[in-house]
Every structure is written in C-alpha cells, then in structure tokens.
Amino acid sequence: MEYTKLVKGESSVATTENKKQVTIYDIADQAGTSASTVGAVLNGSWRNRRISEKRAKTIQQIATEMGYAPNMQARALRSVRSSMIGMIIPMYDNRYFGAIAERFEMAARARGLLPMTSCTHREPELELATVKQMLSYNVDRIVCAGASDPDTIARICKAHGVPTINLDLPGAAATSIISDNYTGAFKLTSALIKHAQAKGLDWQNEFLFLGGRPTDHNTSERIRGFRDAISNAGARPLDENILACGYAAAKSKVAFAAKLKDTGQMPTAMFVNSTISLEGVFDWLAQNDRAALDTILFGSFDWDPFAQYMAQNLFSVRQDVSAMVDTMFRIIDGEAPHEPKIIQIAPIVISDKAGCDTAPSSRI
Amino acid sequence: MEYTKLVKGESSVATTENKKQVTIYDIADQAGTSASTVGAVLNGSWRNRRISEKRAKTIQQIATEMGYAPNMQARALRSVRSSMIGMIIPMYDNRYFGAIAERFEMAARARGLLPMTSCTHREPELELATVKQMLSYNVDRIVCAGASDPDTIARICKAHGVPTINLDLPGAAATSIISDNYTGAFKLTSALIKHAQAKGLDWQNEFLFLGGRPTDHNTSERIRGFRDAISNAGARPLDENILACGYAAAKSKVAFAAKLKDTGQMPTAMFVNSTISLEGVFDWLAQNDRAALDTILFGSFDWDPFAQYMAQNLFSVRQDVSAMVDTMFRIIDGEAPHEPKIIQIAPIVISDKAGCDTAPSSRI
DNA sequence: CTTTATTGCACAATCGATGGTGCAAAGGCT
DNA sequence: AGCCTTTGCACCATCGATTGTGCAATAAAG
Known about the structure:
The structure is a homodimer of 364-residue chains. Chain A is α/β, with parallel strands linked by helices and 364 residues long.
C-alpha cells in the first residue's frame, strides 16, 4: 500500500470508529489518488468522468473499509441539492395524519431522501416559520399536508427555487393530491340515511354535520356532499344543522352541547368531520348520556380503529393514504405529469362491519 | 448608498424574493463592509469581535430588508454543529408516540433546533440506517424513543461525537427517561383486581396479560408489576396467562384467539400492554363476541380516547409524555445532570371516568 | 512512425459561513 | 509630541464535496 501525498488529516489509520469523520481526502490518501476521483467514484458520477473500473473498485473497497459516509452538509452546500424532503402536517393525534407521516417517510427513504416531517398545529405562522427553517437547510422539496395557507408557502418556496406539492388540502399554486371529499361525504351520508330509513327513524330534521373549518376546502366539499345526499334522498338540508366549529375535540364538544341545549333533543344521525371532532362528541356523551352512544347513528369522515370496533352504529370514511402518498411521489418522481392541478383520490366508505377486516395495524 | 467592493454576485438589487438566496456577501456589498463582519453581526458574535454597535445596526437592517436567512449547510459544514436534533420513534399509530413526536418537535423548535423525527417500525436495521443517515447530516444529538437497540446506536453516535439520549425504552449506554412501568402496571393491575373483587368476580385464574415484547424492558417491568399486584392480592400469578406476543394488533388478536380456544372461556380481566395490542383484542371481540366487550374488565397500558370513552370497563395508564419530554430537554439543555442513568416518570392511572376530563385534545 | 482521438485522472475553484490573525485609526498617557 | 493600548474591522484559510478544465499516457488511424 502506497502512502502518497499525505496532505490532509494525516489520519492514515482510520479506526472506522472514533475518528471524527472519514472524508474523501482520507480515502484519497489511502488510495493514492486525488480527492476528486474519490468523490466521483463515491457519488456515482465516475463513469461520466472516465474513471477506470479498476480504480473505482479499489476506492469503493477502501471507502467501505474506512466506513466512509458522505458529509451531506458539504454536498448540499456545493450542489444546492440536499437530498432532504420536508413535510408539514397539522398533528399526529389521529390515524389519518399518522399514516400520512409514516408512509411519507417510508416513500422518501425508499428514494434515498431524508424525510423531515414537522407538525405545525394548523397555525399559519408556525407553518411559515417551519417552512422557512426547512428552506434554510436547502430541502429539495416541501410537502404541505393539511396546510392552512399552502399558497403563501408555495410562493415563498418558489422564490427559493424549491418546488412544493399539497396533500390533503389543496392550493392553487401547486399540484394537490386530496381525497374525493365530495363523493366520500355523499356516500357516507347516503349510507347513514339508508340505514336510518331501514330502521324507520325520522332522520330528516335531526341530522347534524359537526366539525371542521368552513373555510377549508375539504370541509366545504364534505358539506356539499352532505347536503346533496340529503336532497337526493328527498329531504331539505338545514343550515342550522351544519356546525363547522373547527376540528378540536374541545370545540366540537362545546358546539354539540350547545346544539343539544338549543334543540332539546338528541340527533338521529350525525356526520362528524374528523375523528378528532368525534372525540368531542363521544366525550360529551360518555359523560352525559351513554345510552345515546348506542342509538345515534354516526358517520365519521376519517377512521379510527377503536371508534370503529366499539360503536356498532358508526360508519366511517377512510381516506386512502397509501394511494395518496404513492400518487404524490409518482408526481415527485416525474413519472406522472404535474397536471391536472388537483388530483382526487377516492376514499373508502366503511358502512358495515366487514370493513373491520382491514383495520388492524400489521406492524410489530 | 455606497457601492464599494462589488466583488461577489453583483446582485446589488436583491428582490427579497426570487433571488437565489441572500448571502452574507450580498449584504456585505450593500453595507460596504466585509463578509466576516456581516457574518459576525448576523450570528451574534459581533460583540466579541468588536464590531461597533452602529455598524451592527446597519447590517441587521440591511439583512432584514434583503430577507437574509443563513445557509445552514454552510454553517454546519464550517462549525460542525447543525442545529438539528434527530429522533427515531417506532410508529405514529397510537396516541402515545404521536404525543411524544409532537412535544419533541415543539420543545426542539423552542430551542431553535430543527427537529427531525423518523419512525423506524421497531426494526433494528432501519433504526440503525436512519441514525446513520442523520449522522451524515451532522445532527447535534439523537433521541432514541422506543428503540429496539439503543446501545448500538449510542455507540455509533458516540464514535461520531454525537450524544444520544433514550426515551421510553432504556439503554445502558446513555441516559434514559422512561415511565415508571412497574408502579404503573402494579397500580393498574391492583385497580382491576379491586374492581373485580367489588363485583364479586372470580378473577384469580382468568386474568390475562397480553401484548408486548418479553425482551423489552418496559414489558418485563410491566409483567413484574402485574405479577406482584396479583401476589399482593393474595393470588398466584400464572405463567400461562402471560402472553407477550409482540405489540402488533394482528399478533395480539391471534394470541388472544388461541388462548380462548385453549381455555374455552373468556377471561375475567385483561392487562393489555399497549393500545395497539388492545386493537387486536377489540377486533376479535367485535367480530366474535361483542357482548364480551362490555363484560371483560380491561386494563390498557397506554391511553386512547376512543377506547376510553367507549368502554366503561376500561382502565388505562396514561404515560406522562409532557413530563418525559420536558425532563429530557432539561437534561439536554444541561440544566439537569445526566445522572442517574435511568429516570423514571410516574404515569397516570385512569381508573374511573373522572379521568376522561383530561382526555380531549385542545387543538384546533 | 507520426498524428489524432480517447482514456484516465489531477488540479483548482467554488458553495456560504466561521474564526484566527493582522493592521490601521483612534484614544490615553506621560 | 511620542509611545502604548484599544477599537474596529478586513483578509484569508477552512469545512468536505462537486465540477469545469487541462494534460499526460495510451490507443487508433493513416
């Protein structure tokens, strides 16, 4: 083994462990070549640079022996690409967003990207601050999942030359992959109505819609589907039964309680817009009227295993997270076109217990 | 405005937006000073470097006008510190880990650190690969939450000069912050026994422990607490009733079904080790014996709002995530000593419905 | 056996921020 | 006024990888 040009970091005996970090210069020293050759070999561009196969092999072996790992900071600084992909997401307090985060991370890793997810609590300022922070790390791309103001984010990212893509909630400034909220809501509502009719219940006047933000696209589409399904069943949707009070359990609990106080009777059926809002309803009922837990017909837009198992009178819409994330990455990969701007993925309506079969997580 | 020394990137008119990125050189051009002065001002070290207050003010203002944000890659490359903190965590499919991730991110951001969380599915190889990836980005520290093999990770990180800290599951090679699993399990089991006794049920022979990995510290401690509580109540804990079959819902479902087939009768009470395992049990019961959902006495180590609201016969242990994460960061901040190696945080036992008051998420 | 083309690689600039060092100007002191 | 100290800042090397360029050595062509 030759020891030529020991210019940098004389550490010719890299202990694999404990040395500060093996660099291409260390390897170059060992291999008796230049750092640029080593760099080219180790980042895969060596064929373009006409490095001989033999030398490449040697260098790769030395790199392995020395336990080389590229310094991504240096790479990112020079090449501007960081191999990091960021995602902002509202919360991890429900299965839907949890599944999004998990699948996002897996898909990112499968592509050699370092996923950086961060929950931003549906607060626009926090979303923006987080995005800016990610930008200063030169993330290659940012995914806005359920973002309050995706267009402002898209604009800022574009100014930095960083592409964005929206998930769950759409924006006008970037491609968006969302659920087909209208159809999902329509089907869910129709299933509830059908069930109520089969049971001979009077559903027309006491059918609530609860939860969500009236300003967000998903909620407004779900309300539209809800109303249309009611109309379609020959009834008239009532404005006063639509309570888009925000998502938080505390808020839906208050709104639900107020509505009950107002009307003086339990609803026949309820379309609850998110499992978080459903939490508020169940909380109130568990404390005040447990019997109603078994009599009210629930429809939940979003799925939760416990809610599903426990309530026999609960229908759910389960958004197809796998399809959403896969579709998104196909676009990111460039395999699918960026048009149309909004891609809707059909969610799964679980309106009988057969749906439970798909429920349990299969992880350890 | 003076235009002196327009050496680099002649972009004297930075449009705040759309320019590739404002650097200290751009600001230096505008301010007519050197880049090192700008750098010192903007990273706060300017007093040590004897930059005049007046010049600092000027530079700060120009920086604000130009929308400067430091290139963290460059900073990290030079200073080795990246201001990133990584965390690996098993999954986002339950409230416990979701809460950990969320609070971790908040606490990290509050300290100006960029949180990078990544779920690694309880797979040691994936944990290791993820950690190595984080290391190549020079993260300042790594948190191992619920890691299968925290000691190997700690060793590798130490070799890179990166400190680690364990959360949820302890290791020997780094400080660990975990729940007091033994006491939690003891109390939960005792509460179940007391309840069974009050109801005059025969609990001694048909009291199951289900879920978890027998090899992990938490599970073994919970089993110990479970056994001691039974002994303490004057009975004999039965080995054949302890089914540490893994956490996954699918696994607990199978184990539960097999046990039923074996004994031919429903258990009186069950200690279920994680909400994920509880899912498997509920899944089986929902399909095969709904009535048992209301008769079996459940104890769940970990809390889930829906499980809590729906089952009147469910006691839970809710781990004190806030305290755990806060304690961890106090150690990271250096405010608390790194000793003792294992810090146990008391979890909260919810054995009556009063506990529900704390349940709903208060977010939007 | 030249001449041209190709192969195989080394050199050096560069990305943006940090921090050691040096030096002129201003201020203090006798 | 002359000397010393302090102030205020500029210069430059550096972190590790990427990439344009140049130049020997070898191969191919005539």
